[in-house]
Amino acid sequence: ESLLQDESQKLKDEINKLTNHIESRRSESSKLEAVLADKQKNHNDFTKQKNALQDERKSFWKEENSVTAEIDRLKEDLVKAQKSLDHATPGDIRRGLNSVSRIIRDHGIGGVFGPVLELVDCEEKFFTAVEVTAGNSLFHVVVENDDISTRIIQVLTREKGGRVTFIPLNRVHAPNVNVPQSSDFVPLLKKLKFRAEHRRAFEQVFGRTVICRDLETATRVARSNSLDCITLDGDQVAKKGGMTGGFYDSRRSRLKFVKVIRDNKAEIEKKTAHLENVGKKLKDIDKKITDLITKHQQMDAERDHAKSELEQFKADIASATKQKGSLEKALAKKEKSLANIRNQIEQIQSGIAMKNDEMGTELIDQLTLEERDLLSRLNPEITRLKEKFLSCKNSRIEIETRKEELENNLSTNLMRRQKELEAIISSADSKTLPVEVEAKEQELKESKRTLDEATTVLKANVDAINAHTRQMEQLKKQRDDLKALEANLEQTVQDGAKDLEQLMSSRSTYLVKQDECMKKIRDLGSLPADAFETYKRKNKKQLQKLLYDCNEQLKQFSHVNQKALDQYVNFTEQREQLQRRRAELDAGDEKIRELISVLDQRKDESIERTFKGVARHFREVFSELVQGGHGYLVMMKKKDGDAGDDDMDEDAPREPDPEGS
């Protein structure tokens, strides 16, 4: 008994020790759970920040793709406008302007502002008037001074780069045109937009022109105010009275192409700057996301370490609890054994007391009749009770066996399940659970949003696929219809080819007959004028009989030239033509001789007039050089066939010599 008591006390001490250990572990676990709750909260905050940054990055990506597509579209429009402008510009001018741009770039020449076309801007309704007024002056290059233009022209000449007209601002002196104020017209220069330093160049090109409402107003204004007028449709009236007008294709407007190029370049620069700004923002967001991911990973590592420590604490608590349960079971067994021993001791002591009491009583022979009679009744009862005791003892053994089985089942399965449920309950009571639930809900929302986006994209793709499928079905139907039409057309073509072959065969036959008839007609020679009227009403047999008779009669004249009459007529016509040609040549020869004579006369008069002037000046100069002297110039003339010289005074008149001298 004392041994069992000592063992029981040891078990109690160990249980108390384990209880204290479990409590300390639970206290540390609660602290770790609080730390984990804070870390989970921070983790959720970082996750929200990362998701927000990722959403912002997605929006910037989308904006970047949109801006990039817009820039590509603007560049395509810019290339198309440049090509259209090149087609609308004369080739030599375009080559010269390209050479000027290259020379400026290669030689680093400054002070070149560009062609007038690129420096002017106005409303679209004035494009036609500006282009018609300026003409090729739109391609004149405005430079700061004439030294720059001289240098560029020298390079152009040396490199054979074409020809370009320059407008040096230091040499331009625009005319001072006084334009009266009127509601019928407005100066074209007021409708143009240009830089102030280029004003003199624009005054030279557009300063003399006003815009009128219509052609009648332009005619009246040009006549009354001596101004060059133009309408919005491009009809011009010059101050000298000349008029130019007609259709002008505004779709090929060079100013429109330049405006598109200028606007697209400005828009491309703006979009490019915006794209660079978006790129910078994306870099900042990527950096922030990288920092958050780094912190997130560090926090995950700390959280995982805390979780592992918490799991270790829980495992220690579970192990200690299990050990405590084993010790409690052992203590219960020890206490039960101690109680059984005490019961046995008490039974033995009571038995000893009974035996001692019996030792003081007399034997059965000294029993009375009543006692004997009672003994005889109690003996069967004692036997029955002993048997009942044995049966109860066996039943107790069976029950204890069943109890041990149930205890084993309880400790093996149910207690383990209880511990698992307690662990789940303890985790449910943990402070980190609401934070984890919030994180899972956030992940669920993100997943739902992603799913909705994917569903939207999938629906759009399905709709697009259905639309393309319907379009393909329509195209297949059109293809089948076209194939049927093609088959019908091929059949029609084949039928037409057969008919054409028949017609060509018939044509060949008729052509052969026509050649035969024409040969016979040529053999007949020339026919009288009334031949067709005479034989028109006769039938084929009569004509054949007459033809036979005529052929028989013609055989008698086979040696006669049957084409003599035709030849005579032809030769007569040729002679008349030659005579007319001769008369024309004679008239031309006479006119040429008259022209030669007139030219000779004019030549002689011109020579004499010049000689007289020279002789007069010679006489005056000679009298000044030689005091009191006189000098004369005399023209020595020689007629055909005459070797003598004929002196003639410089002032004497001379008749024209028809025979030449």
UniProtKB/TrEMBL annotation:
Biological processes annotated in GO: chromosome organization
Top-level taxon: Eukaryota
Domain SMC hinge: 110-222
Ranges of biased composition (kind: Basic and acidic residues): 651-661
Residue ranges of coiled coil: 1-84, 296-358, 437-495
Region (Disordered): 636-661
Molecular function as annotated in GO: ATP binding
Entry-linked Pfam families: SMC_hinge
SUPFAM superfamilies from the UniProt entry: Smc hinge domain
InterPro entries found in the cross-reference section: P-loop_NTPase (IPR027417), SMC_hinge (IPR010935), SMC_hinge_sf (IPR036277)
Cellular-component GO terms for this entry: chromosome
Keywords, sorted A to Z: Coiled coil
PANTHER family named among the record's database cross-references: STRUCTURAL MAINTENANCE OF CHROMOSOMES PROTEIN 3
UniProt-recorded name of the protein: SMC hinge domain-containing protein
Annotated organism of origin: Aegilops tauschii subsp. strangulata (Goatgrass)
Phylogenetic placement of the source organism: Eukaryota, Viridiplantae, Streptophyta, Embryophyta, Tracheophyta
